[in-house]
Amino acid sequence: MIHLKTPEEIQIIRESAQILAQTHGEVARMIKPGVKTKDLDRRAEEFIRDHHAEPSFLHYNGFPASLCISVNEVVVHGFPGTYELKEGDIVSVDCGVKYNGFHSDSAYTYPLEGVTQEVLDLLNRTYDSLYLGIAQAKAGNRIGDISHAIQAHVEQFGYGVVRELVGHGVGRNLHEDPEVPNYGKRGKGPKIVAGMVFAIEPMINMGTQRVVQEKDGWTIRTNDRKPSAHFEHTVAVHEERTEVLTSHEEIERNYTYKWRSKSR
Ligand code: MG
Ligand code: MG
To answer: Which ligand lies nearest to the CA atom of residue 168 in the structure?
Structure first.
């Protein structure tokens, strides 16, 4: 069942998303070779609590941290820990904030200096696919229009679209209906209407679409151990426009490696 949000509820999610954007910006300052991923997690939790909010992921179905930190071949749901980032890594930082009863959710994959052009291409194309998906997330379209836009963009480069994990409604619960897959057909799926709030989150593998779960019960990695990228925004659908509630602006301001270019 899809819970449509009132303008007042969307305003709360907007505020939640602003705290989330700033949290990402704080983490962005710390991303460099030698930083332990658990230190990123500690800073995120501290920042969220300082802003009278709660980390959505901490204890969610038993998840042990405030951030999902997923390095290289890890697709999503990696645990922060003692691993130290190094040159040539890519690292996905996924975070959720609960504020005044409502969640927001967004993710960003950072390349560290020294990544290959092939990996930068994967990141740029996945990033672009998120915005191509958002462009289809408008009242009157269907969820499949979003799914198709993402899939069509990335598959032209031979990438694998993860099937087991999808975008989702966001509200009083971190994961609500509708599911927002990153693959699908135009004109299929639930109709998009004003009041919907959902996360769009392409998870795109350089190689095979197949993924496996590690024995910890959470960490998802690519079956072929090639790298995977993940970008996510939470959006709100209005009658005349769709609003991106989360933001990567703080990340892009604070992260010193200016890596972005349009898809090639
Ligand atoms: Mg999500
Ligand atoms: Mg997320």
So the answer is: 1
Strand-pair partners of 84 = 36
Q: Which ligand is nearest to the CA of 175?
A: 1
Which ligand gives the minimal distance to the CA of 197?
Answer: 1
Find the 135 Cα to ligand 1 centroid distance in Å.
Answer: 18
Residue 64 in any domain: the answer is yes
Count up the domains in the chain and report the number. 1
Instruction: With 0.90 as the threshold, say if the pTM is over it.
Output: yes
CA–centroid distance, 35 to ligand 2, in Å, is 22
Q: Measure 232 CA to ligand 2 centroid, in angstroms.
A: 6
User: Is residue 31 assigned to a domain?
Assistant: yes
**pLDDT, tens only, 70-112:** 999 999 999 999 999 999 999 999 999 999 999 999 999 999 9
| Helix intervals (H) in the chain | 7-30, 37-50, 117-136, 143-155, 249-254
Separation of CA 106 and ligand 1 centre (Å): 6
- What angle do the packed helices 7-30 and 37-50 form, to 10 degrees? 140
Q: Which range marks the domain in which residue 142 is found? A: 7-254
